[in-house]
Specification:
Blueprint: E1 2-3, E2 10-11, H1 13-22, H2 26-48, E3 88-94, E4 118-119, E5 122-123, H3 129-132, E6 161-167, H4 185-191, H5 204-215, H6 220-227, H7 232-236, H8 243-253, E7 262-268, E8 271-277, H9 280-288, E9 302-305, E10 313-315, H10 322-334, E11 339-347, E12 350-351, E13 359-360, E14 362-367, H11 372-375, E15 384-388, H12 411-418, E16 420-423, E17 429-440, H13 443-450, H14 479-485, H15 493-502, H16 521-524, H17 529-549, H18 551-558, H19 582-589, H20 592-596, H21 611-631, E18 636-637, H22 638-654, H23 657-660, H24 670-674, H25 678-685, H26 693-697, H27 699-709, H28 716-741, E19 764-767, E20 774-778, H29 779-786, H30 791-803, H31 811-819, E21 827-831, E22 833-838, E23 852-857, E24 860-861, E25 869-870, E26 873-874, E27 876-880, E28 892-902, H32 905-912, E29 921-926, E30 941-942, E31 954-958, E32 962-970, H33 985-988, E33 992-995, H34 1000-1005
Parallel strand pairs: 11-17
Antiparallel strand pairs: 1-2, 3-6, 4-5, 6-9, 7-8, 8-15, 9-10, 10-18, 11-14, 12-13, 14-15, 16-17, 19-22, 20-21, 21-28, 22-23, 23-26, 24-25, 27-28, 27-32, 28-29, 29-31, 30-33, 32-33
Helix pairs in contact: 5-28, 17-18, 17-19, 17-21, 21-22, 27-28, 30-31
Length: about 1000
């Protein structure tokens, strides 16, 4: 199997050749041209020399040798790994991807050809009847009637080869000895429960009630009241009479794998603060030795390529990035045989009360050896609460006073240098070197950690006046000089202040990272999608658009968007939202472009926006949204990083329109500048889902908010840590019991690690409900309530064509054959929803996870308010024509699904004559075919398709031909008609744009 470097699709060798030959995606066509050039170059080389060697063919990509001088604007053309002098071996490993048919990455936006007649963004389409209604003699069959099963990219196979370059190092290899008690063996000995598998509890019921009380219970007092009911404890055979006795069992008889919290007092300028913390080294041991992660640990740095010529490199897990490779090399020079354990720290203040200002300041820790799909799932418990910091802002303390932080990470300093023996979950011993790799935080926290002044970049020396300049060279901060300046605080405070000012940092006194080995804190500060993109740039752009178009008009357009599985409808608009979350900004960004595409601001706007500036706004918004989607890819190649850079360049080109219109005075602010560091961070630390603070934000609920609610709000931190330790012990015991029931020794049995490539968007399949929503709906009712007014004619055409697909080549022949079809029924089974699940379930997408859905249901009376009607909903979908491989968007068509139905078996046998037939069908109303997308926004313009009698083009297709739901934007005029509402806009509007940003699957297919 082979991987296309541009779209990251997985193919057989023959399939890849066909894909490159037929694709219309510019990125993939560029790959094809590169291969053609390579063949020509190889032929030329062979004619000059008979040496039997393999040349590495350079293609347009990103130079992998990203040093301190590298910036996104300086991307090179070389695909070699620079001058890294190291022995390595290339090996092709058998690779089973649990994602199946990897998703298609977006190529560059297609634009109108220079010779095409266009007016602004509107493509002049000519006479639609020319395509839609050919004459009888030479006409084509209606869309969707070819019933060959839609073929996909080798969906029955999975990628077999991934080309991995391994560092020639003993790092990551076991020491050759095993721990005496590993995995759950030590846990079993500690329990000493004998034959009682539920020990220390009496029975399964005893354990289940204890689990409920600590994980789901209403509180200690309520549990004690429940247990005190006369006869309750005896009837159930419980081993505890109240919460106090249950807590004693948990504290003394349930083993724990995490260290206890410690309390330390720190005194700052005469004020005493309490810090509750854990030993970080013990936390690393617990994570590394967790038997649940034993078979998944990443122990060695690797370089992944799509082909043996190393023309296109892949980045996904942390061990595929440059940081791990370089750190392992440096460690090998000083302590050969050591294993790098990348420590990932994240911190952020959070509100723990709905009212008032009570805050918590948790710091979380995990390790990069655990795969990211495990780390980011709270249910896997791969993140540990390391410390609760004081939340005071210390405003009363002068800036020159000592503001020392407790150096919680100090135990990692010597351990990082000398290494510490640690056992993995399967008992293998390693000499581990825990090294701080990533510090994930929002911008204020980044400034606090690095000691950088506000409005400055925490990573480089960019001045404030150049933050918005995309061409300003990036010069990273000199860590060595800063480290030389820090000890001066104990020698000469004045020299210390002068040196700090010289290096443009605040006078920070012995920061926690000062003595940590192999750490460059300015490199460890990573890009943050949540705060920099959604709570940063997207938030700003939404605000700017609201000012330009007026908030009332934007709200009116939001209220008139049609529903879709992936779209949240803001029926009250977005201007009234308060304390908007990153998730809400993400939801708004999914339809933001549709609010302004080809729609000028209303006449009452305070800003005069010319047609030229309108196009600049649309191009800028399009580029930023492309950047946001690309930045979140779970796997990147050299090619897709080039696309990410192109999106940023496009945004930089048009962003000054907001200055020209007076929305901003300049574009010099840190969150805009931070976008220039994304590519470097991906190359160094893997994709952004390795260090996105969105995943630790979710931990605030479990480890801060719920913990606070469990206290009496007096001396809360001591209660919070005790509550958390008990919860962790219950969760550990739950995992142990699950392990014991599933065979006992499977979790401790080492197996060969499989490289699991993430997929950009998993392939999908339709899953219908076992039983229909309505068992018998008449054809007359289908026409009246569902709008299927041509059901009999459409289904007759389907049957006729299905019987003789090779004979009915014109509309006239098809209509004649359809007129002879007799439908032996008057009712059909109707389904109101079709769901899409992953074709190949992964660890991320569970087998039954609904990835998409299509709703098809008529209006009905409101059960609570009988006089009101709940509007009907008939979603739009992308449907394959059944004739091609489904690779290109042009092989599909958009239709509005009016009915999803099935037949009784006896009726199916009569109509299809025993021939294999689809089980589920859909009656759809067609839209026009795909033409050239708009030049500025890249959106496809669609209209309802009509014949010459102004009847809607309709058809019946197998439900399996439906690939996904799609969302359509109404083409908004300057002022939205009042008659348009969300539930009827698909009926009242006559022009729509196809929305490619509802989710990652749509983003990869609909552009």
């Amino acid at each position: 199997m082979q991987i296309c470097p541009s779209c990251l699709g997985v193919y057989t060798s023959r399939g890849l050749a066909q894909h490159l030959a037929k694709t219309k995606r510019p990125g993939c066509r560029q790959v094809l041209q590169g291969r053609i050039d390579a063949i020509i170059a190889a032929d030329a080389a062979n004619s000059e020399s008979s040496d039997d060697r393999m040349d590495i063919v350079p293609t347009l990509g990103i130079d992998d040798t990203v040093g301190d001088e590298m910036m996104p604007g300086e991307l090179g053309l070389s695909n070699s790994d620079g001058d890294i002098d190291v022995d390595y071996d290339i090996r092709a490993v058998q690779h089973l991807s649990e994602g199946g048919g990897a998703g298609i990455a977006p190529s560059e936006s297609r634009v109108a050809d220079e010779n095409e007649v266009v007016s602004g963004d509107e493509v002049v389409e000519g006479d639609e009847d020319e395509d839609e209604d050919e004459d009888d003699e030479g006409g084509v069959v209606p869309p969707g009637l070819n019933q060959e099963p839609p073929t996909e990219r080798d969906t029955d196979t999975r990628p077999d080869e991934l080309f991995i370059e391994a560092l020639a190092s003993r790092g990551g290899e076991p020491l050759g000895e095993c721990a005496p008690d590993s995995g759950y063996d030590r846990y079993i000995k500690t329990l000493a429960g004998g034959a009682n598998q539920w020990a220390p509890f009496n029975s399964k019921l005893d354990w289940e009630l204890a689990r409920w009380a600590k994980l789901r219970g209403p509180g200690s007092t309520a549990v004690s009241d429940l247990l005190s009911i006369e006869g309750f404890q005896d009837a159930l055979g419980l081993s505890y009479k109240n919460s106090r006795e249950l807590n004693k069992i948990i504290d003394t008889q349930l083993p724990g794998n995490l260290p206890h919290f410690k309390r330390r007092e720190i005194k700052i300028a005469g004020e005493v603060f309490d810090i509750y913390y854990r030993n970080p080294l013990e936390c690393v041991k617990a994570l590394f030795g967790d038997p649940e992660f034993a078979n998944d640990l990443l122990l060695k740095p690797e370089r992944h390529y799509t082909s043996p010529d190393k023309a296109d490199r892949l980045y996904h897990e942390m061990n595929t990035g440059k940081w791990w490779w370089e750190t392992q090399k440096q460690l090998d020079k000083e302590k050969p045989g050591g294993t790098v354990v990348p420590v990932i720290i994240s911190s952020d203040k959070t509100q723990v009360t709905l009212f008032g200002s009570k805050q918590a300041y948790p710091v979380y820790m995990t390790i990069g050896n655990i795969p990211k799909n495990i780390r980011r799932k709270p249910s896997c418990h791969a993140q540990i609460l390391l410390v609760y910091l004081p939340t005071t802002n210390l405003k009363q303390i002068p800036s020159e006073a000592a503001r020392r932080r407790a150096r919680i990470l100090a135990p990692l300093a010597q351990a990082g240098v000398d290494g510490v023996p640690m056992a993995s979950g399967d008992g293998s011993m390693y000499r581990n070197h825990p090294i701080l790799a990533v510090y994930a935080a929002d911008y204020p926290e980044q400034l606090l950690v690095t000691g950088i002044k506000s409005t400055s970049c925490p990573k480089c020396k960019m001045t404030k006046k150049d933050l918005g300049n995309p061409h300003a060279p990036i010069e990273y901060r000199d860590l060595e000089k800063i480290l030389d300046a820090l000890p001066l605080v104990d020698i000469d405070p004045r020299d210390f202040s002068r040196e700090c000012k010289k290096h443009d940092i605040k006078p920070i006194i012995h920061p926690f990272w000062e003595d940590l080995p192999y750490v460059n804190i300015y490199r460890s500060i990573t890009s943050d999608v949540l705060h920099q993109l959604y709570q940063g740039m997207i938030k700003h752009v939404i605000s700017w658009i609201g000012q330009l178009y007026s908030e009332d008009e934007i709200d009116a357009r939001c209220k008139r968007l049609p529903p879709n599985h992936h779209i949240r409808l803001f029926m009250d608009g977005i201007s009234s939202l308060t304390r908007v979350t990153g998730r809400e900004h993400s939801q708004i960004s999914s339809f933001l472009l549709g609010l302004i595409a080809e729609s000028p601001p209303p006449s009452g706007s305070h800003y005069h926006v010319s047609a030229a500036n309108q196009k600049r706004i649309v191009r800028a918004v399009t580029a930023l949204l492309d950047f946001a989607f690309l930045a979140q890819y779970p796997i990147h190649s050299t090619t897709t990083l080039g696309q990410l850079n192109q999106a940023l360049d496009r945004f930089h080109k048009d962003m000054e329109v907001f200055v020209d219109l007076g929305i901003r005075t300049d574009m010099n602010f840190p969150k805009l500048h931070s976008l220039r560091h994304y590519i470097t961070m991906i190359i160094f630390f893997g994709t952004t889902d390795n260090y996105n603070t969105e995943y630790t934000e979710r931990l605030h609920i479990d480890l801060a908010k719920d913990a606070y609610r469990a206290t009496n709000h007096k001396d809360e931190y001591s209660q919070m840590t005790t509550w958390l330790e008990r919860k962790e012990r219950i969760l550990l015991h739950e995992k142990f019991l699950r392990w014991r029931q599933l065979a006992g020794d499977t979790a401790s049995t080492p197996t060969e690690r499989r490289v699991i490539l993430p997929v950009i968007a998993p392939e999908r399949r339709v899953k219908m409900t076992k039983h229909p929503t309505l068992r018998a709906v008449t054809i007359e009712r289908l026409a009246r309530e569902y709008g299927a007014t041509q059901f009999t004619a459409a289904f007759s055409q389907f049957i006729a064509y299905y019987r003789s697909p090779h004979l009915l080549t014109t509309r006239r022949l098809l209509n004649e054959a359809a007129s002879n079809v007799h439908l032996p029924f008057n009712t059909v089974r109707v389904y109101h929803v079709a769901k899409f699940i992953a074709r190949y379930p992964t660890q991320v997408d569970h087998e039954n996870t609904t990835l998409d859905s299509i709703h098809v249901k008529p209006a009905k009376k409101n059960s609570k308010r009988r006089k009101e009607m709940i509007p009907g909903r008939f979603d739009t979908a992308l449907i394959t024509d059944g004739t091609a491989a489904g690779e290109n968007l042009e092989d599909h068509r958009v239709g509005r699904v009016r009915v999803i139905f099935s037949l009784q078996e006896r009726h199916a046998r009569i109509l299809f004559g025993g021939k294999a037939a689809p089980k589920y069908f859909a009656y759809v109303e067609w839209f026009t075919t795909f033409r050239t997308p708009g030049r500025n926004h890249g959106l496809y313009l669609l209209e309802p398709a009509y014949d010459r009698q102004r009847e809607r083009f309709v058809g019946v297709v197998p439900v399996d031909n439906i690939r996904q739901s799609v969302h359509l934007f109404p083409r908004f005029p300057a002022e939205v008609p009042e008659r348009w509402i969300s539930s009827n806009v698909l009926n009242t509007c006559d022009k729509f744009f196809l929305n490619p940003r509802t989710d990652r699957y749509s983003f990869t297919r609909l552009r």
